[in-house]
Amino acid sequence: MQKRRNDIGWGIVLLWLTVMLHGCGTADSVPNAGKQEETPVVKPETRIVKTVHGDVEIPANPQRIVTQGYLAQFLAFGVKPVGAPYWEIESPHVKDLAAGIADIGQIDGGSVEKILALNPDLIVTVGGDEKLNEQYRKIAPTIVIPYGTYHEVHEEMKAFGQLLGKEQEADNRLAAFDEDVKQAKASIAGLVPAGTTFSIMGPFDKEFYIYGDGVNRGGQAIYQQLGLTPPESVRTDLIQKKVDAQSVSTEKIAAYAGDYIFLDISGGAEFDESSPVWASLDAVKNNRIFKLNPDRFWPYDPIAVQAQVKEVASMLQERLGEKKAQK
């Protein structure tokens, strides 16, 4: 009886060893058997953007953007916001691209409810009113890019390329921009004698302004991109000091007047072009005034600047090309 119990015990042990050996053989015969499966890499749904108000966590791929002051910058990358102020939507440079974008009105308290109704996942604003910015932040992640942050197309396009994760597209679009500038400059080569100066000036509301090479009245296109020469007074008082606009008294207009003047009359200003001071300017006497269309020369986004470069070159071709042909 004892022998039979021992036989049964050994049988159980042998059976257990057989199962274990079989299991080990199976594991060795199947690649990666017994190993944990690799966890698939999940792309982050958000990312961090550095701003003047600190780091802001935004969606990695925002789908419902509301912007105040930067509509054209998004459209330049083929990104269509769901809301923007009416003056941006109606800009002649982007009007064809802005169909269907909701008007959120002025940058004031009335915009909050309109923005909320659009259910945005990102707000990008010039943000002059911090109390408003706080209300926007309660609706969606909000990036504040203050007015005048960018004074040059390349800088601005690269910044928005980083914001949107479209750095390569920014480089491609800047290459196209540079090619347009190159062609525009070639089209006026030889028309402008060396040393010829150009001013941008005009009345706005009840004051008279001189403009530099920044965000006002085509300054980027005229001075930065086409390389037209400003009067020394404009260079020292505005451009070198990074002043975009400066109001001057009537008596000082002549001190900033170039050989040619790009004239902007806007803001409901009444301007008497027969006034003694204005009529005494050499540019006026010699028909060297180019009148700017405010709708086309107020915007300062990359799309607008690219169009303004071409328009200014056309103005110079038409006026100076005729004079050259007459000689």
UniProtKB/TrEMBL annotation:
One GO location term (cellular component): outer membrane-bounded periplasmic space
Pfam family for this entry, one: Peripla_BP_2
Record-linked PANTHER family: IRON III DICITRATE-BINDING PERIPLASMIC PROTEIN, IRON(3+)-HYDROXAMATE-BINDING PROTEIN FHUD
Source organism per UniProt: Brevibacillus parabrevis
BP-aspect Gene Ontology terms: iron coordination entity transport
Subcellular location: Cell envelope
TM annotation in the entry: none
Keywords: Signal, Transport
Protein's name according to its UniProt entry: Iron(3+)-hydroxamate-binding protein YxeB
Fe/B12 periplasmic-binding domain span: 64-320
Keyword Transport: yes
Keyword Chloroplast listed: no
Entry-linked InterPro entries: ABC_transptr_periplasmic_BD, Bact_iron-sidero_bind
